[in-house]
Amino acid sequence: MKTTMDLMEGIFPRGSRVLKESAKKRIMQKRIKDSASNFSPAGNKNDEKEAANMPVTCSTYYSVSVPKAELLNKIKNLPEEAGGDDEQVDINEKKAELIQSLTHKLEILKEAKESLLADIKLNNTLGEEVESLISGLCKPNEFDKYRMFIGDLDKVVSLLLSLSGRLARVENVLSSLGEDADKQEWVSLNEKRKMLASQHEDARELKDNLDRRERVVLDILCSYLSEEQLQDYQHFVKMKSGLLIEQRELDDKIKLGQEQLKCLLESLPTEYFLESKMATEPPAIPGTNPDNRSTPSFL
Fold first, then answer.
1. Residues 106 and 155 grouped into a single domain
2. Same domain, 183 and 218
3. Are residues 213 and 255 in the same domain?
4. Helix 66-81 vs helix 140-176: crossing angle, to nearest 10
5. Distance in angstroms (rounded) separating the CA atoms of residues 62 and 207
6. Residue ranges of region Disordered (predicted)?
7. How many CA atoms lie within 13 A of 259 on its CB side?
8. What are the Cα distances from residue 107, in Å, to 36, 77, 266, 288?
9. What is the Cα–Cα distance from 90 to 160, expressed in whole angstroms?
10. Residue 297 domain flag
11. Is residue 127 part of a domain?
């Protein structure tokens, strides 16, 4: 299954040590705090792997999301595989364990995003300081080139993220359609894929043009800034694009987790929560209104 990040690979230098370490630090800090958790990592991985490998047979994949539709198929098939009440109870317990696991992971991702937003705020502050410095040193036309480059950096990153996400979604649907798929649906999706692939290629050309402008701006700033000031500028630019991409990646994971959690909660009978060892009512989905669990507000 393709993701937004798969199609962003190689476009931006997000593999920098700074970004990798900051992301790892956010996740590991939360995991260390919760190291006494009772969840089974091996079991969770098996559940996730099984869900990812479920066959796809319907166009529901484009109206919700591929992972959610896979989970819907999995849950739909579980009762048919159950041979009796005991097996059904066991299935419900496995669902409950997965709900606990997903809730825990969503809490980790939520804290990671809060930390990421703090990093973005710090980097924006650094950008304001750099801009203030440059405005007092450069000629007006040189400063305009700097501001236009920084403004377009945001736009190009956002455009590529959006197109990569939409293209990945369509390609996943196409690859999941079986031989008995509706021909008209296949043709429509294939046309959409071609259009998005063309737009994605155009956006990559915009990124190449942006890279050339970045080199022009760097040459200008080399004439005015000290080595330390230049390093601040380069760090700001690298982190600006990298943090935007990392934010999108976290948002995608949170949205996926919320969809899967909502789907699992809806698949369990109400009486299960009353009779089981879980709380007397289903857990709220992190990032949603606890009084309206059926309509989560995705981040």
1. no
2. yes
3. no
4. 30
5. 28
6. 29-50, 280-299
7. 18
8. 15, 29, 20, 12
9. 44
10. no
11. yes
Place of tokens 């040459």: 219
Same-domain pairing of 128 and 254? yes
154 and 216 both lie in a single domain: yes
- Token pair of 241, please? 């694009």
Q: What is the pLDDT of residues 260-281, one digit of tens each?
A: 888 888 887 776 665 555 444 4
Sequence-distant (≥ 6) Cβ neighbours of residue 149 within 8 angstroms: 210, 213, 214, 217
pLDDT at residue 289, as a whole number:
55
The count of structural domains within the chain is 2
Classify residue 80: in a domain, yes or no: no
Kindly state the tokens that stand for 54.
Answer: 């479920």
Q: Which residue has the tokens 């330390």?
A: 228
- CA-atom Rg of the chain in angstroms: 23
- Residue 155 belongs to a domain: yes
Q: Which residue has the tokens 């857990």?
A: 283
At CA 297, angle to CA 258 and CA 5, rounded to 5? 55
Q: Which conformational region is residue 177 in: left (phi greater than 0), alpha (psi within -120 to 50 degrees), or beta?
A: beta
Question: Are residue 207 and residue 261 in the same domain, yes or no?
Answer: no
- Same domain? For 161 and 211 the reply is yes
> The whole model's pTM is what?
0.68
The DSSP symbol for 136 reads T
- What's the pLDDT score for residue 144? 96
Q: What is the mean pLDDT of the chain?
A: 76
Tokens, residue 100: 């606990």
Q: For residue 75, name the pLDDT band (cuts at 50, 70, 90).
A: low
- Among residues 277, 290, 286, which one has the least CA distance to residue 103? 286
Its domain, for residue 181, covers 139-223
Residue 236 token pair: 């700001």
d(CA 73, CA 130) in angstroms, rounded, equals: 52
Statement to judge: residues 155 and 200 lie in one domain = yes
Say what percent of the chain tops pLDDT 90. 44
